[in-house]
Amino acid sequence: MTPRRSRPSLGVPVFFAVTLSLSAYFTFAAVQGDFGLFRRAEIVVEGQKLEQELAAVQAEVLQMENLTRRLSDDFLDLDLLDQQARDVLGLVRSDEIVVN
Fold first, then answer.
1. Greatest alpha-carbon span in the chain
2. Angle, nearest 10°, between helix axes 11-32 and 37-70?
3. Which of 8, 14, 65, 96 is such that its CA lies 20 to 30 A from the CA of 49?
4. What confidence tens digit (pLDDT) does each residue in 17-29 have?
């Protein structure tokens, strides 16, 4: 009988190397990928900013609707009409002095 040489098997180290590489890749993708945890946090912050901007725009719209209603034919606010005439048309009363 001839002595048999025992060669170390490469299958087990290759299997562990591939498994470790895939695990590292998927962990990195789950944290920093396009759909990862960091991107989700950015989306949440961006959503909060957009909600604040929406609230500001809605408040501005309500203010404009109020001013429009106050200048309508059904409801006329004389003080607002006087202010708009001064601002837009540059009108002044006869008893006022204009300083530029």
1. 129
2. 10
3. 65
4. 999 999 999 999 9
67: CB partners within 8 A, 6+ apart = 80
Q: How many residues does the chain have?
A: 100
Per-residue pLDDT of 22-81, as tens digits, reads: 999 999 999 998 888 999 999 999 999 999 999 999 999 999 998 888 877 788 788 888
DSSP for the chain reads -PPPPPPPPSHHHHHHHHHHHHHHHHHHHHHHSTTSHHHHHHHHHHHHHHHHHHHHHHHHHHHHHHHHHHBSSSSB-HHHHHHHIIIII----TT-----
The count of other CB atoms within 10 Å of the CB of residue 80 is 13
